[in-house]
Amino acid sequence: MAKKKSANIKLVLNQLVSDIFEKNDNQALNYKQVSAKLNLNDQESRDTILEILKDGKASGVYLEPEKGKFKLKDLQTFIIGHVDMTADGSAYIIPDDEFEKDIRVAPRKLKNALHGDTVKVYVFAKKNGSKRDGEVIEIIKRAKSDFTGVIKISDRFAFVIADDKKMMHDIFVPLADILDARNGQRVLVNLTDWPEGAKNPIGVVKHVLGNQGENNTEMNAILAQYGFPLSFPPQVEKEANAIPEEIPAKEIVNRKDFRKVLTFTIDPADAKDFDDAISYQKLANGNHEIGVHIADVSHYVIQGTDLDKEAYSRATSVYLVDRVIPMLPERLSNGVCSLRPHEDKLCFAAVFELDEQANIVNEWYGRTVIHSDRRFSYEEAQEVIESKQGDYAKEIEKLNELAYILRDRKFKNGAISFESTEVKFKLDEFGKPIGVYVKERKDAHKLIEDYMLLANRKVAEFIAKKVKGEKKLTFVYRVHDSPNMETLNTFATFASRFGYKINTKSDKEIAKSLNYLMADVEGKKEQNILTSLAIRSMAKAIYTTKKTSHYGLAFEYYTHFTSPIRRYPDVMAHRLLQGYLDGGKSADAEFYEVASAHSSAMEKRAAEAERASIKYKQAEYLENNIGSNYKGIISGVTEWGMYVEIEENKCEGMIRLRDISDDFYVLDEKNYCIVGQRKKKKYQLGDEVMIRVKKVDLSKRQIDFTLIPD
């Protein structure tokens, strides 16, 4: 134990010694000078420092330019980054500095760091140009301390096997800390300690999620796994419940009154949180006034309140297969803020005067009060569009006509249309999937989308052009970078196997050829694969205060303004816009950049939770179909197997290479295929194959297939 303690002291001293050289511009110093600067003047410390310097010289960390004096060979021997765990228990540290290369850390050098943690790493000197290795010397911040998993209880203790595949350690739980959990139940456990030298961390059960396999248990486990709370804190609910539904007369006086102008909403049939409404009136000059009225969440959610802090923390609503976990308490999301029909509601609006060619003649931004005349479902609005009959048929027809012009203009300017087949589950009363159906996007969906895009684009443009140069106003933009050309070229090579040519000469040519591909592939078996690969070849859209264009939409300016009930960036956009309309100064850019980065991270996490719920329902759906045969399409290839998506229900599973018995198959990564070593038979991404459902593991959300030979 003393040996271990002395090694730890030496490791800490190693860092302190290195810091001295860095702070002194890497000036050559002897061990006595280093000791003095560290205020360590006892002989034992001096000897240890001399030993560190000599060992460092031998390993290539330090140079000895003159006898007894040392300096660092490379200044930066310590790097801060994030842990990316691998399947064998080792990790790569992804440096915060994007110009630094990843550092490999062996399992025994991780110092109990877990996946995603922010750590400080001591980087060893390179040997023969090999990859850089290092050792974690400090865990700066845990990525998470809560884990979902299955609890195993014995007579003397319990432990939790985490659901997270990158959590390599079981979590020890004293029997006093298991709440009322029973053996084999799914729980949420919080890490409380990890004693030095202990193999496993210690935790306490925070929440008993329930029995494995029960729908509610599994959906709550997914939410908890991705860090979304299962309920609102009492104080937040109390604040929400204290907000009155009645609108004071003095509030209406301060707003533009649209209550006598035709206004309606178009949403999914089962929606309750109506974010947006459209108002329409034909003007005396023959032009069309179209108002995009958005729930005025920022009027009710005041910055700095507990309600606001909770909304900031969540950053987004989460849409699982069978439920919505709202960003705001139900009192607001489905009540006070929701633009329900036949009720006066407060909104923040972008109002446009359009001519017959959908050119903007005038625009206005500000707070409004509306009274929705009708709540349409998408299906009802589509029926009106197709039959030209029903409530407000003439007005909806004109709105649709103008939306078509806006849409065509967008694509001519280089926007990309990614249309993939969306399959939804039919669920029984217990949440079990009993069937699948394809969700179609028709004109009613696109009409609403086009007016939301118009509002988002013009609000961003209004702010960006209000003040130019260094004094530009801080705002939250939604940006999308142009694609990485190497990734896009790889996709173009793959698409060419299906007969599609991607022209990569310019952004407009890329968009044109991608749109041609998307239109041509619609309804074909390879549609989902080519669409998902095309999307993967694009950069990811993020929130930021640093304005750049939106590549996928071909908009120079873009923000998210239209969904504040379910997205926090929209709440920020409303607050900033109102502040500038009132003549306020530019807001704190650093604060909003941090908030934007947080929102981007939470959006990604919500998408992962949604995908996990789909995977679970796919596994649950096929659990009753083990042994059934299906036609599928190869959707992914890896070193250990190939993924196949069943054509009729879009469920995805894996055929493991070891289960294909007619040859020994290996991955050809460059050509997206696996190849038999003797017979040279190929299974290519996009190929059609017949499969049999072999096994379903609900707890891991995994489906295994076997290949049915030709």
Topology:
Layout: H1 2-23, H2 31-37, H3 43-59, E1 62-66, E2 69-72, E3 78-85, E4 91-95, E5 103-105, E6 118-123, E7 134-141, E8 146-153, E9 158-162, E10 171-173, E11 186-193, E12 202-210, H4 215-225, H5 234-241, H6 249-253, E13 256-257, E14 263-267, E15 276-282, E16 288-295, H7 297-300, H8 306-314, E17 318-319, E18 324-325, H9 330-336, E19 344-354, E20 360-371, E21 374-377, H10 378-387, H11 393-412, E22 422-427, E23 433-439, H12 443-466, E24 477-479, H13 485-496, H14 507-521, H15 527-537, E25 542-544, H16 568-581, H17 589-623, E26 629-637, E27 641-646, E28 652-656, E29 665-668, E30 673-676, E31 682-684, E32 688-697, E33 702-708
EC number: 3.1.13.1
Pfam families: CSD2, OB_RNB, RNB, S1
Protein name: Ribonuclease R
